Amino acid sequence: MSNGVTIAGSGSTAAHTEDPLYQQGVGNANQPGQVVLQWVAPVFTVAQVDPNPVAMAQGVTTQMAFTVSADTTVPAGRTVTLAFPPGVALAPGGAVRYICPAGGTNDLLPITVSPDGSVSVTAPEITSSTTCFYSVDVRASTPGLLQGSITVDSTTGTTSYSIT
Question: What is the pLDDT of residues 88-112, one digit of tens each?
């Protein structure tokens, strides 16, 4: 507000009546004001790490790895969910780890298992780098080439399992 007049803004520069978001009379002469918020949502990428598909034997615990990255740094706290196909599940006593080989990070993450068998973890900070990855202990009971998924926000990637 400047001299009792609301000045609409565009980006980081304030404007006046020439601004495309300006509405005549809003905020002027004791009229109700207007707040315009703009933001850019991060664009996530989720991908299974090679081998893809992960080769598994029935009844044997195997580690499946995947990455989660974004076009901008996203603070810790996003939920990452793994949905397994029928016949694949988190191994008994299985874990999800966040691993960054260069920094020596190998963190065991708390997990939530839903009634449908999907597993959710809270992601640490997400960056554009794919050098850090997640590793999950899985076990299969059904042979075949099966597909599941990894989801963060509205981004979903496919996971593949080759089970003998």
Answer: 999 999 999 999 998 899 999 999 9
Q: What are phi and psi of 81, to 5 degrees?
A: -120, 130
Distances (CA, A) of 27 to 2, 19, 24, 42, 97: 10, 14, 9, 32, 52
Q: Is 87 exposed, middle or buried (0-12, 13-18, 19+ CB in 10 A)?
A: middle
The residue written with tokens 């850090």 in the block is 132
For residue 35, how far is the Cα from the chain centroid? 29
pLDDT tens sequence across 134-149? 999 999 999 999 999 9
- Listed in sequence order, the DSSP H helices in the chain are none
Task: Report whether pLDDT(159) > 60.
Answer: yes
Q: Fill in the amino acid letter for 134.
A: Y
CA 109 to chain centre: 15
d(CA 104, CA 99): 8
* CA-based nearest residue to 80, from 94, 71, 88, 69: 69
C-alpha to C-alpha distance for 63 and 91, rounded to whole angstroms: 9
Residue type, position 160, single letter: S
